[in-house]
Amino acid sequence: MAVFLPFMGMTAQDEIPVRPSPVQTMDPVVVPPYLSVGTAVDLDNPAAYLYPDWNNEYVHTFEGAILPDTVVVSTKGYSMPTDSTYITDKYGYRPRRGRMHMGLDVKVRIGDTIRAAFDGKVRISRYERRGYGHYLVLRHPNGLETVYGHLSKRLVDENDIVHAGDPIGLGGNSGRSTGSHLHFETRILGNAINPENMFDFPNHRIATDFYVFTKNTREVYYKVRSGDTLSGIAMKNSTSVSNICRLNGISKNTVIRVGQTLRVN
Ligand SMILES: [Zn+2]
Predict the structure, then answer these.
(1) What is the CA(112)–ligand 1 centre distance, in A?
(2) pTM for the structure as a whole
(3) Above 60 in pLDDT, residue 100?
């Protein structure tokens, strides 16, 4: 944990110690290089220090990407994606349904303005009938990607550069959605993070100046396949049956179903 000490008690105004060459050298701690004085923010290829390429195809897979042990995410310059302060569904795993809710649902009305959470570039602007509906994926210089789902209208195109607070879409109820709301996700290299770790919707403000993502504490999920047993799944994922039971609120005798999702870390 000693590695975190330089960041403790710092505010957004403080200068962040930056190591010279991130990611390619497998540096365990990645701090966005633009936080070092005199380094320009690259909005044309945001967070190139973390992502192997820029594409408009894949939402959550990053081939050839190396996930660093730790990524320090600065939330400086944020904008709340909506004026709404009402959370209708939390982020998290639902053991009973064997399903994961990868984002946070915030109540919005159809036509409400949805805004870019940070400066960045639109990576995906697409319609998906059964899932996100009209949705956007933005990549930001701080290493995050943000996802905005169930929009009634998309106001930006792929590869557009946006600034924090810019209107990017209108609230809606498209895709697999009951009742108009914004489905909002925050991810690093496809790894979902609870948006509430960064965005305090009820109080309409940011929750932290820096969010520290660590590989070892990230949540890992496994989809049960035919022939799987709890002990087999535990072995495949370098964990124990008792840990899986604890994470999912089940016992070692619980019957698992094919297609069910289990949290394994
Ligand atoms: Zn949702």
Answers:
(1) 17
(2) 0.78
(3) yes
